[in-house]
Amino acid sequence: MQSPAAGKTAEEKFQDASDWESVREMNYANTTIARVIPGGSVLDLGCGNGMLLAEIAKKGATCTGIDLSEKTAALARERGVDCRVHDLTERLPFPDNSFEHVILLDVLEHVYYPGEVLREATRVSSKYVYISTPNFVSLPARIQVLCGRVPENNKPRMGHVYWMTQAVVSGLARQAGLVLDESYNNTFWEDKPLVGSVTRALVRVWPSLFALSFVARFRKV
What distance in Å separates the CA atoms of residue 108 and residue 104, rounded to the nearest whole number? Predict the structure, then answer.
């Protein structure tokens, strides 16, 4: 018997697995990157509905987006973003060093060969590559596993196919020819009185355990 997914295009499979992408929100990674990118030429790989690029464009930046889904690309264009439909697992349609800033927010954990995607992002960048991924071995995730539960970041329809840790992200960046320039990691309970100051201190010392997500700016070497 043929699988229901058989014969579907890459975009259709993507939409089946990741309907949430069409309503990409300004979460911690997005707001952080919107704050730290000063302007210039920007490429957002997996830009979703273009909300992040629309914010960065307010600084006078020249922004381009890439997304696999025509549905989300259309939403981005409605925001005035130059968004093109392209499969990120294939060679990007840009020459080397085309953009000062290249963004990969919550993308690498969704592809089977994240190293290849990151190398392409590095190729078309002239200065910086920005990466964010969930921390799949955070303290809350470890506790959930010990309790016999599936970690929250691996629930059905999240579309995660590659588990990211601090060591994995660092290794992929190094292999792509990137060096860490700045990191920005959020943690749990950080908005709570007293306990928040503790978790914020702990995430600086032990991000592999206390970070909920890794957000970093890497410099091309």
Answer: 7
- The whole-model pTM stands at 0.86
| Euclidean distance between CA atoms 152 and 27, whole angstroms | 16
Cβ atoms 117, 68 nearer than 8 A: no
Beta-carbon count within 10 A of 51 CB: 18
Residue 151 banded pLDDT, cuts 50, 70, 90: confident
**Residue-range domains of the chain with CATH:** 10-135+161-187+213-220 (3.40.50.150)
pLDDT in tens, 3-19: 344 454 444 444 443 44
Tokens of 26: 């300004």
Asked if 73 and 65 count as a contact pair (C-beta separation under 8 A), the reply is yes
Tokens of 21: 């992408």
Mean pLDDT of 44-69: 95
- Per-residue tokens: 170: 């660092």
